[in-house]
Amino acid sequence: MQPPCYRAAATSSFDGVQGTYGLAADAARLAGSELGLLPRQMQSASWEPVRELFTPEFKTPLNAAVIDSIW
Question: Measuring CA to CA, which of 23, 36, 38, 66 is 20 to 30 A from 2?
Answer without folding.
Answer: 23
